[in-house]
Write a structure and sequence with these properties.
Elements lengths: L27 E3 L5 E3 H10 L16 E2 L2 H9 L1 E3 L10 E3 H10 L4 E3 L8 E3 L3 H7 L4 E3 L7 E3 L8 H86 L1
Antiparallel strand pairs: 1-2, 1-3, 4-5, 6-7, 8-9
Length: 244
């Protein structure tokens, strides 16, 4: 939908009106036949039609183009009233700057920033409303440190609130201790499995070394026996030599 033509000051050229809603163009697009439309209007039209609403020429979304620059400049220079005119705003500015003004307009209706409050107030009156809003929050005057809503003043009990917080902290601490305990047990189990695996490997290596040592001792004994036999044979040969 376009800008309501009643908001504009002075004459508005027919070529700057949307061919569908007949209001002043908003975010305009132009068809090859040079008829102009609000983006929202023409997109909605083309959902159910495939031609221009003015001259019935076939058009498609891909054929739509931005407004000619000179037409865009004429559009931006149009003067119009702020949409908050009914609330007292007397601002008149160009279409090019109207959005920026309305975002900051003191007469704009904005929601209260307090959670739970559904009141809409003018921006210029927001501070006054916040000062008396039943949903405004403040720190407990009794020193417990809690932030309370004015509507909850009669129900606020410092001792009960602190006891509740203490219970929550105790529960949270127990949960954290249990988590740390489980994590530590998991780590210990992992280390224990690793140590058992390492011990098994070392035990196998020790057994292999014992086997090698046993074979070596057997070889040494065999060598010593062969040496004794060889010595005996030498002694026998020496005796025989002497006898001869």
């Amino acid at each position: 939908m376009g800008y309501d033509i009643e908001r504009f000051v002075g004459y508005v050229n027919e070529g700057l009106l949307c061919s569908i809603c007949r209001d002043v163009l908003e975010d305009p697009l132009q068809a090859p036949c040079e008829h102009a439309f609000c983006t929202a209007c023409i997109h909605g039209w083309l959902v159910h039609h495939s031609n221009c609403p003015e001259d019935r020429q076939v058009i498609d979304v891909s054929l739509l183009r931005p407004l000619y620059r000179y037409m865009k400049n004429d559009l931006n220079r149009l003067q119009l009233h702020c949409r908050n005119r009914e609330f007292g705003c007397e601002m008149v500015c160009s279409l090019e700057s109207i959005d920026r003004h309305e975002r900051e307009c003191e007469y704009s209706q904005i929601p209260c920033s307090n959670a739970g409050c559904s009141v809409q107030v003018e921006r210029r009156n927001l501070d006054g409303h916040l000062a008396v809003c039943e949903y405004r929050s403040r720190e407990c005057p009794n020193g417990c440190g809690y932030t309370i809503l004015s509507a909850e003043d009669t129900q606020h009990n410092c001792v009960a609130e602190l006891r509740t917080e203490l219970e929550l902290l105790r529960s949270e601490m127990i949960c954290r201790v249990e988590e740390a305990k489980h994590e530590m047990e998991s780590r210990l189990d992992s280390q224990r499995r690793h140590m058992v695996q390492k011990e098994s490997i070392l035990q196998n290596e020790i057994e292999e070394l014992k086997s090698q040592m046993s074979r070596m001792m057997s070889d040494v004994r065999s060598l010593m026996a062969a040496e004794r036999q060889h010595r005996q044979e030498l002694e026998q040969a020496e005796l025989e030599k002497r006898e001869l």
